[in-house]
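Dear Dr. V.,

Thank you for agreeing to look over these. As mentioned in my earlier message, I'm a first-year student in the group and I'm still getting used to reading structure tokens, so any feedback on how I've presented them would be very welcome. I ran two proteins. I've put each sequence directly above its structure. The first is here:
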Amino acid sequence: MSPNHWYPAAFSHEVKRKQLIDVTFMGDSFAVYRGEDGVARSVENRCPHRQIKLSHGTVEGCNVVCIYHGWTFEPGGKLVGFKHDKFGKKLPVLNVQAYPVRERYGIIWFFPGDPELAALTPLVEIPHSDDWASVRFAFTWAAHHSMLIDNLCNLSHLWVHGSWVPYGPTVLADSSAEKDKLTLSWEHELRRDFMHPFTKRVFRRDASSNLSDTFMIYDYPYQSALSNQRIRSTNFMLPIDETHTRVFTYQLWKPPKGVPKAVFQRLVMPALKPIAREIFRQDGFTVEEEQKSWFIHGHRPIPEPNPMVKRFNELTVRKWDEYLEFKRTGTLTDAQMAEQVRVKVL
């Protein structure tokens, strides 16, 4: 994935004041920390003195202190001191790279690419994040990020979930591809089983129908699914390396009419979270098995009937090629810049 986007580093609650964590993006390590002032920050995870990861160290005020010799770096990455004798010499003039960080939706976001582009790149917008109830969780899967995008957007795989989802026959009713954004409209027939009296109230399109809708968006590099205007699942990939990806999920549920959000959040969401996590666990099993099989059978052609899968792969390759060209030239075309500064609404 192109580094020139905002990516999730951790959920906000995972990084306490004066805490450092190690976050890996495409093989590169970043130290993400929260200063005593409560602000989240990120620097290159390497002390230039002995190359030890700064995430092993401590936080003093808003500075990062290396565990080995106490070399201390301020939030902008500049060396401001160390914990040993100077041997009669001046403090070296050096810096570690600092990276832009934002915090929203209970997620710490960092920009591992060009810092100048960070100032131009809006953070993703998630509708109803203020007035719908929510759950958050994350998984790390041993699979390439493109396999996760295929799994999350291509609902032809619902068979694997069995009775954990309420859907029977599912068809791709519509789809579109425009620049960096792909959409898929799925139509489901609700399965008439013992859970149908409940699931029809939550998942059907309207009272006169037994159909359900899921509208998928993949607006590179972010993914979302909106079910019947009532359930929104947003998913954010953190590509660790070529065969490992961490996916951060932020799900929103619209409270029924007359039910306060706080009540729905406290009483209902704790029961829904383990169900959602189990469904994602099943997804994780399948993409990890696909990754294992790719190493063995990757040379064999794949007969794929869904035409949008090819679009996903083409978009992934194109965005990487664009990043490599940007890295070489330092510039974006007008069309690429228009996509870079566009507000992505999930």
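The second protein is here, in the same arrangement:
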Amino acid sequence: MGGGSARWMVRQHSGLGCMRNGSVLLIVSIDTEEDNWNRSRHDVTVENIRELRTQAAVFDRWGVRPTYFTTYQVATDPEAADVMREVTDGGRAEIGAHLHPWNTPPLSEAFEPRNSMLKNLPAELQRAKLERLTAVLEETFGRPPVAFRAGRYGLGRDTVAALLRCGYRVDSSVSPFISLETVDDGPTFVGAPIVPYRLAPDRDVREPAPNGPVLEIPLSYGFNRGPFSFWDPTRRMLEATPFRWFHLAGIAARAGLLKRVSLSPEYQAVGDMLTLSRRLLEHGVRHLQLSWHSPSLKPGLSPFAATAADVARLYACVEGYLNGLSRLMPLTFVTTSEAAAVLG
């Protein structure tokens, strides 16, 4: 899993002037969470966190400085917290907040699918959960988090208000072109910008607020061809009745005619991620965000890594992408809050 000859093009973070050298900002973010892929309040384990040491060795070879969006269950487990301190020591990474509402106290809401989307909880309960998570992260790791990602990407207006109350200034929950409305009444991000933009509590999370106090750094989603403004509605049309009866969206994707792609080694092959990276840059994006979930680092915990071979493929995909991307363009690795300082 070596870095290859292209590593000479990779730069460490060098402050606000890093964009002036022509490099692309690359954020690597990990949803750092409990083992239980099926949501649970009981028998919660965090054994996958031990695997962060192996992952950190890969990051160190490349100079990647990841953001670990960390859940309450991880932060309150002493052994997991020790691992987190080890892999973030000396500024090697950033610890952000990742709120799983179903097992972050207070647990006053019913344990049901709709309530797993943070946006669906009462505003005061969202705030109370975020206050508890924030306090635990600060107590455990010695500094308050400033970057946030909602579990299941369940961001809503009231969540933005809670972020403000708790001192957050950066969110990275928005997944452009994706609608989760039919998934436990989740949010829709259809129509959201693919570039960083400002959020405010009085606006839909897809709508930029010019003077909004929270900066949204979207996850990297798009299509294998541009312009996205044409292919996004085309894809949604193929997914709608009556076209969905004929599975046209799936046929188009398998044929390579129209694929919706994310920068995630859990879902995508290296070639598709490199294609998406080129398309995003063609659309004026100045950052790329590679992301996955920590349970995928241990076989049998996530649907993306049933076996040790699957975990090895994930690592190979990450390094293949970094190697391929660094051959295409100079890169600057940044954490989420560092990216916000440059892009905001």
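From my reading of the second output: The chain has one domain: 5-224+259-343. The chain is about 35% helix and 15% strand. Does that match how you would interpret it?

Kind regards,
E.
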